[in-house]
Each structure stands twice: as C-alpha cells, then as structure tokens.
C-alpha cells in the first residue's frame, strides 16, 4: 500500500508522530511515498525530522498560531487576523495538496491534524481515502472531560478540529488512557505514537530539572526562578532561532536549541520535567516515569494538561513555577498502566489503517455530524 502523509508542522508533536507512523508502516510492508508538511514563516522544520523521515519531504504554506507580544500564550485575535490576510496563499496550498495526492500514486492519505488537508477534501474531494490522526480528535469524543475554561474557546477548538478531519473515513484519537470508541463520530481511541527511542529507553533520576518551551518568552520566567534557586541545575529546550545550540547562562542554567537526541538524553536522566503541555512530550515524560509541571499556552494544551493531570502525571500552572514541580515530585508515583498502553500502539493503529483500506475508495462525505454537533 502506498501512503501519503500530510503533517501540521507547528511544534514537534505531529512531526514525531509522523516519524513513528512511517516506521510502523514500513515495518509492515507498506510504502510512504511522500510527506507534505505545513510550514509558516515563524518556525523552521526541526533537524531531527529531516534526519529521521525516509520519504521525500515537501513543504507548503499553512496557517499557524501567533503568540502574544510577550511570546508566551497564543493570541487568538492576532492569529485569526493574520491568517485571514493569507487566504489566497492557503488556497494555492490546497491546490498543491490535491495535485500531490493525485501525482504521488497514493492509495491512502494519513493526515496529522493539518487544517488545509481537511479543507482540500471539502473543496476538491480527492478520491483517495483519508485517515486523520491526532490526540485532538479525542476532544470530539462523547466521553471526553474538558477543563473549566471559556466556552467560546472550547467551541472554537472543536470547530477547528472538525475542519481538519473533513472527508476522513476514520479518526484515530491518541489518548493517555484506554477508552471506548465513539462509533457515531467515527472516533477510534488508540495509544500515543511514541518514537522507538523512547520505548527502548529507561529513565534514571538525576539532580536537575528538564524543560521544553514552545514560546521563548517563558525564558525570562525561568531566569527569575533560577536567580533565587541557583543550587538546582536547569536544562531547558526551546526553538529560538537567534540563539546558539547551547546558551549557558551560568554553571546551573542552560538553554538548548531543540535536538531530539540530546532532548531524550536529558529527559531520561532528569529529576522532573516542565513543559508547555504539548501532548507528545507529556507522553514521553509519562512513559519514562517523570513528574510533570504543565504550563499550557493555548486552549488545546489546557485540555491536554487537564487530561494528563487526571491520569496522575503532574500539576498545572500558569507560569513555570518550578517550586511547585519539586513539591509534587516528592510524592509522585509513575503510572505503570500507561507504559503497557503505549506499548500496544503498533498493532492497534495498524489494524485501523489496514481495515481503512477495505472501505470504499470514494471520499468520505461531510457528515451531518460536522454541521450540527457543536455542543461543548
């Protein structure tokens, strides 16, 4: 079977999921013919992705979220205004996606939460079946529990998620825990797509705190905390483009440019982990048995953090309050059930993908579910 990937390039989560999915498919005798990655002018494609993905990678311009002026949380108003001005560019990208689906000879499209993939299936209705993959599809599940956040933001998140999976014959919802499938919404709950390096790694408890920041504005927050607690070593990762590979503030505080091998090494050996609540890095910390501090930067990460906290993974904060992380780590117990769940990922996901090929090769219709189910 020939498969084409369409991947949202924002952050690292969907990119690492695509790497793992390609490995699963190749091991089972399938071929990934091409990987289309949505890009923006504000972020570059991480080096670890180009090093690990085997299929040819092509880029297209795609919507992205803009941070607040302080470069911490996402600014919804700025993001909407900016992306509206780019509509002609995004229409051109959709034409490109349709062309690559047709020219690649793909028999299946796997969409990793890319908005323009869903809109391409809405406007141009490619004949190749599509399966949508992402933890965000759990937000459409009838049994998912949401945090107590503003209703409009939750509505918008769910609406955006529905747009990404238009035309999908299946939606694979990556989850921290096992749940019943939601047959009405065509949602199948599966384990997270953890990379093989994580699954073969064992965690040890070191004396330093490890962290990851999508938006570099939190760096000042870390510096302030460090100025009071200089005795505690800190190693934080970010994707700030104008900084060297390692920015050593002093003997116990270093900021690192994102690198997958180094990131995993520091993750495996840390005492505890602080993150902006991206699904993938939360899963990696849970698998390695690390206590978590989660600092969400947008509504999607608010939901991730709330769901992970319900699984006992960590605590939630508005800022990088590392004192709170240290307090939580004193009484933390790893969730061993998560490790068994994560290890069952391969056969569960392959079952859904291969059974998806037995479906009709006509595009899935836009379900009435899309139009009428917007309740929170």
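-> sequence recovered:
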């Amino acid at each position: 079977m020939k498969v084409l990937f369409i991947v949202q390039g924002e952050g690292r989560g969907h990119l690492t999921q695509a790497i793992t999915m390609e490995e699963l498919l190749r091991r089972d005798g399938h071929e990934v013919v091409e990987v289309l990655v949505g890009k923006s002018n504000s972020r570059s494609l991480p080096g670890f992705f180009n090093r690990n993905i085997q299929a040819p990678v092509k880029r297209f311009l795609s919507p992205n979220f803009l941070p607040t002026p302080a470069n911490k949380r996402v600014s919804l108003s700025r993001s909407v205004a900016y992306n509206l001005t780019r509509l002609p560019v995004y229409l051109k990208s959709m034409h490109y996606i349709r062309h690559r689906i047709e020219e690649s000879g793909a028999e299946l499209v796997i969409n990793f939460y890319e908005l323009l993939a869903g809109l391409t299936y809405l406007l141009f209705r490619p004949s190749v079946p599509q399966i949508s993959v992402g933890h965000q599809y759990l937000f459409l599940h009838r049994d998912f529990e949401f945090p107590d956040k503003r209703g409009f933001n939750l509505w918008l998140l769910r609406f955006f998620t529905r747009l990404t999976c238009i035309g999908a014959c299946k939606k694979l919802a990556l989850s921290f825990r096992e749940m019943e499938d939601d047959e009405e919404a065509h949602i199948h709950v599966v384990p997270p797509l953890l990379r093989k390096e994580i699954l073969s790694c064992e965690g040890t408890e070191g004396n330093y705190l490890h962290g990851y920041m999508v938006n570099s504005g939190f760096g000042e927050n870390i510096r302030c905390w460090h100025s009071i607690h200089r005795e505690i070593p800190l190693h934080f990762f970010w994707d700030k483009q104008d900084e060297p590979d390692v920015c050593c503030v002093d003997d116990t505080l270093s900021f690192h440019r994102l690198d997958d091998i180094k990131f995993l090494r520091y993750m495996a050996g840390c005492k505890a982990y602080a993150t902006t609540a991206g699904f993938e890095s939360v899963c990696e910390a849970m698998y390695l048995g690390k206590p978590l501090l989660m600092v969400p930067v947008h509504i999607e990460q608010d939901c991730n953090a709330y769901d992970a906290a319900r699984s006992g993974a960590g605590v939630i904060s508005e800022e990088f309050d590392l004192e709170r992380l240290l307090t939580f780590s004193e009484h933390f117990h790893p969730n061993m059930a998560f490790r068994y769940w994560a290890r069952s990922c391969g056969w569960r996901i392959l079952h859904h993908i291969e059974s998806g090929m037995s479906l009709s090769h006509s595009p899935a219709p836009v379900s009435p579910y899309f139009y009428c189910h917007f309740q929170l």
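DSSP finds 15 helices and 14 strands in the chain.
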